[in-house]
Amino acid sequence: RTERARLSQELASRYEAEAQRFFETALPVLTRLMDDEGVIALIRPELVLLGADWLDITELAIARLDAATASQD
């Protein structure tokens, strides 16, 4: 039981570190994207009641995040 608790804590710590690293990389990329595209907010798709396809910059954001994370490897 103690070993499982230790492993669980280790996994949670690793997850937190990876999430922090991702957001440290993502924030400047997304901020730059927002500036480039004139975006004032990023909204999760399930929160949008009505919107045009041109509002969705998800693919562009993913491409920029992929490029940013690839340069870190």
Give the total of beta strands: 0
Regions with little confidence, pLDDT below 50 for 5+ residues: none
Number of helices: 2
C-alpha Rg, in Å?
A: 17 Å
Secondary structural class? mainly alpha
- Largest sheet features: none
Task: Bin the strand percentage.
Answer: under 5%
Ends apart, CA distance between termini:
36 Å
Oligomer: single chain
The general outline is: elongated
Question: How confident overall, as mean pLDDT?
Answer: 89
Q: What's the helical proportion of residues? A: 55-70%
What letter string, H or E per element, gives the SSE order? HH
Describe the structure.
It is a single chain. The protein has helices spanning 2-37, 58-70. The chain is mostly helical and 73 residues long.
Labels describing this entry:
mainly alpha, 73 residues, 2 helices
In short:
This protein has helices at 2-37, 58-70.
Task: Give the secondary structure arrangement, pairings included.
Elements: H1 2-37, H2 58-70
